[in-house]
Specification:
CATH architecture: 3-Layer(aba) Sandwich
Number of domains: 1
Number of helices: 10
Strand content: 5-15%
Helix content: 25-40%
Largest sheet: 6 strands, antiparallel
CATH topology: Beta-lactamase
Strand order of the largest sheet: 2-1-13-12-11-10
Number of strands: 13
């Protein structure tokens, strides 16, 4: 049975639909999502400081230390290169943490494309407030009346099934990527060339090459159009946007190191620019693991985390709404960014893993394997 599209109501919210896809456009039914675990009783929320605990006794501590020793070895290992910080949170407490010799727990590092998931959260907050409706077309001022791109919805832009051209990178078989050369790329001129002063304006020039819902295509330009929409909805220019992000997301979670990046046009570069510490990125991952609720306060709409981790079939089952999805028994979904940035979230293990570093794109497959090995150490025997 297909899922129903969201129905607009006067306040701009979507009416509840069946299951976790209450915000999603119609698509074939997927495998049931694993339930998101609540905060364990007696464990404090990490708004001010993280609780700490020993790893589960079933975790092979020797294997854990060996993996961390390799990642943080000097000279830096050839396979993963530089790892800045790593934090593993299970059942609401930090159970493993390490930082490079010249880094500390409060040092902030570049998110790169993990910022897309922050953009997802900002859109979700406005949906909760009744100020955005995912079923409605995304308003892009550069697109004139009659332009077929004006039919692209906010939901389709979040799921990257918008039908726009965006040329970013070739994905290699082991998980690494190879970025296109500048003359065949859209992301390089957008971030570092002609489009860098107005990333959303550059993204608005992207041509339509397919019908919406026809295909999936990774689109950092669409993320910047979404972040501009958030800023326009909030109002007040870049300072209004910064205040909104701080008031509605960063401050409630205690993300004190968060530093979003803006372009010269005043747009949050929501496809790639937000510095945070590993502990603060772990707070962000925990928000989604806890179904968008933080210490009794609903930050994201009910069902939003499930919408975000529901893979669109056009993606081959690997991408939801500005979150990657990893098929398997652990229910893994994640934020990913250039250089091997990762926030891995497992509902089955009640676990969040953050790895920050600087790894060449074609070597990111080694980071993925490293993170998988770490997660497997926290998997109960036979789980």
């Amino acid at each position: 049975m297909g899922r129903l599209p969201p129905q607009s109501e006067p306040g701009g919210l979507a009416q509840p639909g069946p299951g976790p896809a209450r915000y999603a456009a119609p698509m074939p039914a997927a495998a049931p999502l694993l339930p998101l675990p609540p905060q364990p009783a007696g464990v404090a929320w990490p708004t001010r400081e993280w609780p700490r605990a020993e790893p589960d006794p079933r975790v092979d501590r020797g294997a854990l230390e060996k993996l961390l020793d390799h990642a943080f070895s000097l000279p830096e290992p050839d396979d993963m290169e530089r790892t800045h910080s790593l934090v593993i949170v299970q059942r609401g407490a930090i159970v493993a943490e390490r930082h490079a010799h010249d880094a500390g727990p409060d040092d902030a590092f570049h998110s790169w494309s993990m910022a897309k998931s922050i953009t997802n959260a900002l859109v979700g907050i406005l949906v909760r407030q009744g100020k955005l409706d995912l079923a409605r077309p995304i308003p892009v001022k550069e697109w004139p009346e009659g332009d077929p791109r004006r039919r692209i919805t906010i939901d389709q832009m979040l799921r990257m099934v918008d039908g726009l051209r965006f040329r970013e990178a070739e994905h290699l078989g082991d998980g690494g990527v190879r970025y296109h050369p500048p003359d065949e790329s859209d992301v390089i001129p957008m971030l570092f060339g002609e489009g860098k002063d107005d990333v959303a304006g550059f993204a608005a020039t992207l041509p339509k090459v397919a019908e919406p819902e026809e295909r999936w295509n990774y689109n950092s330009g669409g993320s910047n159009l979404l972040s501009r929409l958030v800023g326009e909805t909030v109002g007040g220019g870049p300072e209004g946007m910064r205040a909104f992000m701080r008031r509605e997301l960063f401050a409630p979670l205690g993300m004190t190191t968060a530093r979003p990046g803006f372009d010269a046009a005043g747009t949050f570069v929501g496809g790639s620019h937000c510095h945070c510490s590993a502990r603060d990125f772990a707070r962000f991952g925990t928000l989604y693991l806890r179904d968008g609720v933080w210490d009794g306060e609903r930050i994201l709409p009910e069902g939003w985390a499930d919408y975000s981790r529901t893979a669109s079939p056009q993606s081959g089952g690997i991408y939801g709404a500005h979150f990657w999805v990893i098929p398997g028994s652990l229910g893994l979904f994640n934020c990913g960014g250039m250089g091997g940035q990762r926030i891995l979230i497992s509902p089955k293990l009640d676990l969040v893993l953050v790895r920050l570093g600087k790894t060449a794109p074609h070597k990111v497959g080694a980071v993925i394997q490293f993170c998988r090995k770490l997660v497997d150490l926290f998997r109960p025997t036979g789980g």
